[in-house]
Amino acid sequence: MCVFAVSVLAASTASAQKKPAKPAAAKATRYGALAVDRKQGFVYGWAYDQPSRAEASEFARNECSKRNGNCTVVVEFSGEGCASYHTISAEDGSAYGWGTATTQGAAEARSLQECNAFSDGKASCGNHVWACNSKDVAPFKVLREDAVKAKPAKTDCLVQYELNVVDGNDDWKDRYLSPLYRLAAADCPATAKTQFHSFYYGNDNGRINEGETNIERKDPARQAKGKALALAFSEWATGKRPLDGGLHFRPTASVTTTVASDENQSYLTEHVGQSDSDRVHGICVAYAPPGIEPVATYGADRCQRWVR
User: Fold this and answer.
1) Which range of residues forms the domain containing residue 141?
2) Residue 151 located in a structural domain
3) Cα gap 104→140, rounded to integer Å
4) What pLDDT, in 10s, does the model give residues 207-237?
5) Are 172 and 282 found together in one domain?
6) I want to staple 34 with a disulfide (CB 3.0 to 4.6 A). Which of 75, 154, 182, 243 is the partner?
7) How many CB atoms lie within 10 A of CB 70?
């Protein structure tokens, strides 16, 4: 028993004299980012292997801006991992998708899935780029990954553009509407709770006609958004002509906005491609809110011809 006790004591003493192991050196962290123009999905910018998150985001945004894009950072990641980006061709529209993962293949699978869902099978997501940080760095971590397409919410609004068609005597003949766009709350102009709210703007040989209708409450910031939407639409419409011969557009263009209720959505979608007299002409205005990615678009399938 004594020998056993001494043996244990000797072992304990030897153990106590061992030097503690040095901790493993921390691996460096590298950062990547993706910036895109949500209106022009084929405009994008990448960053990888950057020394900080801020530098990665700035680099990606700058690369995207070089392509004349209105760019937003949508993905940020760090460590040993990848991000991937798929788009459809520019002539087919602006659907896209992105994804992140620890491997290039897994990231590609996610971005392709997102792009296919966005395009709804109407175009092929054949354009593809990817970026990975170097290996043997810190473990992979997703720092930011925005939703590719926003989901409908009760706080959304509905927006629709309108041009009135008149004859040489300025008598009303018809109207052309855009498809109906559902916008996220952050992009919405002022809206009336119980009725439609319109902003209008026109420049008739230097005579400015602008304003809004159905005002329920004052909200200067949101009113400014509505006025900006009407002004941009009016400038786009300048020089455009109706598809019906011998007619022209009134110089005042308008944009209608309201809350995104099922009733309002159904009513406004039903009037796409037809006049107030319910005459179906299938003509639509090929215009959408500039620099804004709609949550959803309704009624485009009712359009057979477009004013572009």
Assistant:
1) 31-145
2) no
3) 12
4) 999 999 876 667 888 899 999 999 999 999 9
5) yes
6) 75
7) 15
Residue 244: other Cβ atoms inside 10 A: 14
Shared domain for 285 and 167, answered yes or no, is: yes
CA atoms in the 13 A half-sphere facing the CB of 61:
12
Give me the number of domains the chain comprises: 2
Instruction: Report the length, in residues, of the chain.
Output: 308
Residues 264 and 165 grouped into a single domain: yes
Dihedral in degrees, nearest 10, Cα atoms 301, 174, 260, 121: 10
> Does residue 268 lie in a domain region?
yes
DSSP state of 179: P
Spatial separation of the C-alpha atoms in residues 218 and 48, rounded to whole Å = 46
Examine the domain organization and report whether 169 and 300 are in the same domain: yes
Point out the domain boundary residue: 145, 168, 188: 145
H-state helical runs in 84-212: 104-119
CB 253 within 8 A of CB 234: yes
With vertex at residue 260, the alpha carbon angle to CA 255 and CA 261, rounded to the nearest 5 degrees, is: 125
C-alpha closest to that of 84 among 27, 39, 142, 135: 142
The structure tokens listed for 236 are: 């786009």
Please give the structure tokens belonging to residue 234. 């009016």
Residue among 127, 129, 134, 45 at smallest CA distance from 90: 127
Residue 129 has pLDDT above 60, yes or no: yes
**Based on the domain organization, do 125 and 164 belong to the same domain?**
no
In a domain, 76, yes or no: yes
Same domain, 167 and 303: yes
| Threshold 0.70, pTM exceeds | no
Q: What is the DSSP code (8-state) at residue 280?
A: B
**Which pLDDT band holds residue 9 (cuts at 50, 70, 90)?**
very low
* Residue entry with tokens 């798929």: 86
DSSP string spanning 53-92?
HHHHHHHHHHHHHTTT---EEEEEEESS-EEEEEE--GGG
Alpha carbon 119 to chain centroid, angstroms:
13
Q: Do 292 and 193 share a structural domain?
A: yes
